[in-house]
Protein: NAD(P)-binding protein
Organism: Tricholomella constricta
Amino acid sequence: MSSYNKTRHQQQNPEEFYKTTTARIQKIQSQIANSPRGTRLTDKVCIITGVGSLKGIGRATAIRFAHEGAKHLYLIDFDPTNLPDLKSTIGKLYPDVKVTTLQADAADEAAISGVCDQALREEGRLDVFFANAGFASRNALPDTTAETFMDSMRINALSCFHAVKFASAAMQKRNPSRGKEYSGGSIIMTASTAGIRSGAGTVDYSASKAAVNSIAKTSAYQLQKCDVRVNTICPGLIETNMTGETFDYARQRGTAGKIGQLNPLGRFEIAQAAVFLASDDSSYVNGQNIAVDGGLSASHPVAPGRWV
Ligand SMILES: NC(=O)c1ccc[n+]([C@@H]2O[C@H](COP(=O)([O-])OP(=O)(O)OC[C@H]3O[C@@H](n4cnc5c(N)ncnc54)[C@H](O)[C@@H]3O)[C@@H](O)[C@H]2O)c1
């Protein structure tokens, strides 16, 4: 047997791997839930968009930011359904964290400049903006209209442009009386492995996420010397509201194991990456597109047997 095949045979079968991955993530989730309060975001005033979905990256991150001692969280979604639940969940777990929920479109210029102004007015400072709102289109190229293309660009990319433009201006405002003696802050955007290479999304979705990755690099360059950092997180395929159908379909067909290379509940791991980027632990990380994807984007698709 070739060494390539030996390596493959040593791996668990996909169903087993899916089960052990799920168990591993549940363990991580319970460790996170039971870990003592952190201090990595103490005193930080943060804005997060796309927090409305119960299984989403935005909600998981909001709870994590509260756990790490954020001072005030401004939480935005255009769907208001689950905002009261998120506010009360954080209120029960972390009563010292102020939470303001807002129903708004993350791609609306006035809404985003407005929430940055609101943070400055109420807290005198802005430290973190996590531009996470997004949606995934489904059509193959022949069925993708110009309208769908522009929707993807508007919701996924224009929303990030607004975040960078208005948050970076707000983050440069100093306010020693509120503990902010220097300009600075961290802008984090959720891009995707689809923005790095092909095979992970539709043409319009991938183009919009590539734009987000580019916005991080070009704006980090323009914002140098003011200590406002801009980075993206590129998640792999993880189970949230956006991808629920894909996971349900795979479970129905009994092929869930095949998506088990990826991380079925990875939203908590994305949240951990967001905490790192929001905190001063990452003070030397700037202009980067960071894949948090279990290795998905590190490799070309594997065609078993071709390399032996
Ligand atoms: N789940 C994945 O596998 C995956 C992979 C790569 C990237 N992403 C990205 O992660 C981000 C979060 O997605 P998720 O997986 O948590 O999906 P989700 O659908 O569970 O959550 C997305 C949230 O964003 C909100 N939203 C969408 N458009 C908005 C807008 N214009 N203004 C305000 N809110 C808006 C939705 O209402 C929803 O609550 C998205 O940017 C998505 O593209 C997800």
